[in-house]
């Protein structure tokens, strides 16, 4: 069991190195990660078999044979990305480097509660009807505003859409038989900025979103800071006026009721 776990961890480290630094030689991968060349060779062979990396030319020789370089295969598989907002559901096909290849927007039409969840499942199903074969799809990634339990895949609370304790990950996996992830929208944007944007070198980052609501994704030491129940970034529900506008969350004078796009 421990050996298998170590092998999986090594493959993950090696794949991440190829994504970040490829095209790169096997010997350079070994040096960067202090992993034995034999382990790297075995892991790369498996990653090639899985279609996640491929050999791409040769590098400069340092005294022996020219090294064969390997590169990440971003188009070998794809993921279905779903973005829930208070006004629409956006669904896209993305490659493994987050490049959008197909996208469709489904207006929410002021639906809330069970109705919006039923509409979400119907919209995903409609989007997936275009695919005769989903063997290359690694799963469905869903982002939503509100307080999210990432480990359990539950929307604890979204006051605007009137969602409470919705086991969305379980529901989607049961209906579509695809692995599913669920994340808070601001957290996901912060992670994307850290991975693909201009702030890759920074370990600490706060990304504030202003759209249908107001939220923040907080990265501390390279990882999302979630707080005790996943609500650390819910800055939109900070009261700025105790006698202000009543909010759907039960508070008064919440920030997002003054500076979100609908409010503006």
TrEMBL record:
Start and end residues of each HTH marR-type domain: 14-54
Matching InterPro entries: ATPase_NBD (IPR043129), HTH_MarR-typ (IPR000835), ROK (IPR000600), ROK_cs (IPR049874), WH-like_DNA-bd_sf (IPR036388), WH_DNA-bd_sf (IPR036390)
A Pfam family per the record: MarR
PROSITE patterns xrefs: ROK
GO molecular function: DNA-binding transcription factor activity
Family: Belongs to the ROK (NagC/XylR) family.
PANTHER family given in the database record: BIFUNCTIONAL UDP-N-ACETYLGLUCOSAMINE 2-EPIMERASE_N-ACETYLMANNOSAMINE KINASE, ROK (REPRESSOR, ORF, KINASE) FAMILY
Protein name: HTH marR-type domain-containing protein
Organism, scientific name: marine sediment metagenome
